[in-house]
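=== RUN LOG ===
request id: a7f3
mode: sequence -> structure
chains: 1
length: 115
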Amino acid sequence: MTADALSQVFAALADPVRRDMVARLAVADATVNELAEPYAMTVQAVSKHVKVLQSAGLVSRSRDAQRRPVHLEAEVLDLMTKWIERYRVLAEERFRRLDDVLADLPDDVEPLPPA
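=== RESULT ===
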């Protein structure tokens, strides 16, 4: 995944409605009408949210007779997880080094008074 594609995914997930849609699609595919049910917005507005998710590669649409279900593309989430994990590991290593430095400090040092 390129940096631009990754930016698109994070931008798509910046909206709480789209995050909720992704969470619901993780359970099962749904049509736009089904996705629109819990929201106080028009089906057209929900359709725009789906298009943003689709442009980011997070969802795809298929045709099943008259039904057009929206499907979560979990591979994109796996790529995001790998990207995040790389930086989590780096941060953890930095905290471990800080723990080592703090462990080497003597316990009997008095704190400095405020300036």
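=== NOTES ===
The chain is about 60% helix and 5% strand.
The first helix runs from residue 3 to 12.
=== END ===
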